[in-house]
Amino acid sequence: MRDVLEEVLTELKPDIVHVTHLINHTSVLLEVAGKLQIPVYTTFTDFFGFCFNNKLEAANGDLCAGPSTSRSNCVACYLKDSAQNGHANGWLKKAAIPTAANIIARGMVGTHKAGLLKNGYLQGMVEDLIRRPETLSYLYNMYYKGAVAPTAFLKKSYENNGINVPMTKIWFGIDIDRQPKPERSSLHIPVIGYIGQIAPHKGTDTLIEAFKQLPKNSAQLKIYGPTDQSPSYMEELRKLSEGVEGVSFMGTFEQSRTAEVFSDLDLFVIPSRWYENSPLVLLNSLATHTPVVVSDVEGMTEFLTEGENGYSFKRGNADDLAKRLAHILQTPGLLRKLSTTTEYLRTTEVMAKETFNLYQQH
After folding, report:
1. pLDDT at residue 361, rounded to an integer
2. Nearest CA to 142 among 164, 171, 167?
3. What class has domain 191-341?
4. Residue 162 burial (CB < 10 Å; 0-12/13-18/19+)?
């Protein structure tokens, strides 16, 4: 990668390199740009800079603050993911259970620290996970002249995990048809929507569990997303919704149809279990005057004014979500009122101007 990146940047001679993610370029990109004396900026879109799974989700599914001092929590995440995805052998398969993953991880880190971990693969894996946060923070702090953080929460998370790059909060811009919601007939059954990945960390099961608690024929639920991303989870969702009227799995749609799809929705739900961070689908919902109900995680609630553009509910709690949905659906005129006060005005042009201002400040 080093030679290829150096060749490309030497040929292009850019004034600035703006990195949106290093996951496929590797941190070598920073070293090459530094060698060529090209200023480098970045937009932090997730937690990659200090969390190897990008989601700040602990092995047991709890929210995480970042690597522990020993890094055993990072090792536990790696072991659990490997075991659950069929990449573990022998006794390491037990790490598929989060409690076991944490116990095994603590043992591995302790054994490694004592110099007694002799298995070459395991030794290398543990060493890499222990060193990763310091390696990336060193490179980030050395090479990034400035960074964009799309939420205050993401900015705080990076700062709390050793990243001292000058950071500026700049909300993302959205370019979409912002027409008001179409008028609904008196016989219209409200449509609740979900759009996104269909995977456990997205909490789609929580939404279905909540929908099942609503009175019959009080709403429809349309779930958009790839049905083949996690076949086992998809099968779980189909069983969960079996016999429930009004639940439809809609598959995916072309990006050009985004405004059209949202125009059909009366309420949009993001039931994620992890720290979503300014998801574009949330901003699209607000921009199309579609009120939202979101998990109470800071990366989303920053955009929420309760009772004006939507509501939040306790993360992972289907009962609390059901209460929120029931309140909205059963309060006369509330959905229509919310749609008139739900908006998101920022465009990509505004975002670009603010980003260019960032370059000029440094």
Report:
1. 84
2. 164
3. alpha beta
4. middle
Q: Of 263, 45, 264, 273, which is closest to residue 153 (Cα–Cα)?
A: 45
Of residues 260, 249, 247, the one with CA closest to residue 221: 247
C-alpha angle with apex 19: 194 to 51, nearest 5 degrees? Answer: 65
**Where along the chain do its domains lie?**
2-66+104-169, 191-341
Segment 122-149 mean pLDDT: 95
* Residue 321 · residue 313 · CB < 8 Å: yes
Beta-ladder partners of 41: 18, 146
Segments in the chain forming alpha helices (H): 2-12, 28-35, 72-84, 98-113, 120-143, 152-160, 204-212, 231-241, 258-264, 280-287, 298-301, 318-330, 334-341, 348-361
Burial 184-223 (b: 16+ CB within 10 A, else e): eeeeeeebbbbbbebbbbbbbbbbbbbbbebeeeebbbbb
Q: Which amino acid is at 237?
A: L
Q: Please state the rounded mean pLDDT for residues 265-290.
A: 96
Structure tokens at 181: 């919601």
Q: Which residue shows structure tokens 């920053």?
A: 302
Question: Which secondary-structure segment (H or E) carries 117?
Answer: none
Q: b or e along 13-44 (b: 16 or more beta carbons within 10 Å of the residue's beta carbon)?
A: eeeebebeebeeeebbbbbbbbeeebbbbbbb
- Measured in degrees and rounded to the nearest 5, phi and psi for residue 147 equal -140, 150
Averaged confidence pLDDT in the chain = 95
Amino acid at 62: D
